[in-house]
Amino acid sequence: DVMFAYPGDPGKLALRGVSITIRPGQLVVVVGANGSGKSTLIKLLTRIYDPISGAILLDGERLSSYRQHTLHQATAVLSQGHHLFPLSMGENIGLGCVERMHDERAVHAAAQAGGATSGNNLLGKEGEALRKRLDALDKPVEVSGGETQRIVAARTFMRFNSGKVRAVLVDEPSSALDPEGELALFDNLRAEREGKTMIFVTHRFGHLTKYADLIICMKEGQIVEHGVLNELVDLDGEYKKLYDIQASAFVTT
Predict the structure, then answer these.
(1) Residue 60: CB partners within 8 Å, gap ≥ 6?
(2) Which of 165, 217, 229, 232 is deepest in the core (most CB within 10 A)?
(3) What span, in angstroms and rounded, lies between the C-alpha atoms of 111 and 133?
(4) CB 192 within 8 A of CB 27
(5) Which domains does the chain have, with CATH numbers?
(6) pTM above 0.70, yes or no
């Protein structure tokens, strides 16, 4: 049973009695209202923080017993925090797999998978943004939130070229994307799932949950329901409530 409180607010538990088994190769979707603990769970799985009690086990061993470098090599994280470096667009993507940073074919394939080659104004004349620093283009551009998210997503796809990634953790990476762009991103991520465990945190979960091997529904720092889509809908509980709220947004009268 994992318990966790943020250092700045030790009296308030962000996770309470969390216990779940995720099997290798599963596609997992974590859902819940704001503040339910979804992103906190990802932070513990990536060891940004450690539990204050309880333990997270990986292959039967405590996660804290693994070297950080080993975990980093085996994990790809696509999160809400987006950052571009003062480099070319191609180099920003290539950072996902430094060994192949200058492999133009690999970089371009990653850019396409992340949506960074469509629907934005960054490529410019003959794709100059892939080669030139973004702040030194012949025609200066402002990088929008959606464009930033696409480049960061492309960096994650580039990371798959290392051949070492075994776990992919996706935490609300598409807040600035339209539904069509988000759908394409998630479909492209799912296409890469062979040999990988994938854990998604997203508010717009309707498309993903039908593919999920496991849905985890959280509320107030606890896992209140878990199972597959039909099971949780039939429970008519917290997940069904969230599902109905989301579905109602697409119903016109």
Answers:
(1) none
(2) 217
(3) 16
(4) no
(5) 2-248 (3.40.50.300)
(6) yes
